[in-house]
Amino acid sequence: MRPGMTDRTAPRDGLREDGPEAGGRRRDKEATKQALLAAALQVFALRGYDAATTREVAQAAGVNEQLIQRYFGGKEGLLLAVIERFGEEERRSCAMPPPCASIEAEVQGFLEFHLEHACEIADITKVALHRSLCDPKVAREIGRQFAETRVPLLCRRLEALRARGLIDQGADLEAAATALSSLSFGLAFVDQLVFGADCERLRRVTRHVARVYASALAPRADEDAISGEP
Prior knowledge:
- The protein has two domains: about 25-75, Arc Repressor Mutant, subunit A, CATH 1.10.10.60; about 85-220, Orthogonal Bundle (Tetracycline Repressor, domain 2), CATH 1.10.357.10.
- It is built from eleven helices and no strands.
- The termini are far apart.
- Helix 5 (about 105-120) runs antiparallel to helix 10 (about 200-215) and helix 8 (about 150-165) packs across helix 9 (about 175-195).
- The chain has about 230 residues and is an all-alpha fold.
């Protein structure tokens, strides 16, 4: 033990201790966790989750492998933390461009934004979805991320258009937002990244979908007015 170091502050098991009494140590702990998350993203994407090892992740992060167990409870916990971090990025990305002036422009902008966003998060999305097929915890976490990001965001933007009289008052905006969110993922990830669909063709699809939704959500004329009844 170094001079001046007490039992309380001495490292245990060869690892740096991150006690609550040391603000700098807290920052070290958070920096280590972030380094592990970044390394895990890189290694899982390169090697695949099943083939990757915690030793490889720790080496890429430049830290002791035992810290993965300490901070995340092991490899599975590390993956869940990476997916949670992906969710945080998803929430930040969902700021999207400024709201549009019409339903058609809003829907098209939403779908095209996610075509581009999918390319930025392609690696971790592939890892997460592959793992979700055999791990219910991962599947639930991905479902939660989508439910808390894309759907509420699009609902708010559609509600703003309805407040301006551009969407029918009886339209089920949650159902519309849910369908569009699922479609955005299918077009951006499955068609674009997995199947390698032509980007221009996908943009034609987004324009067509936007026109369909604009027509479906537009205010309906009063039936009495249509029939000519007083």
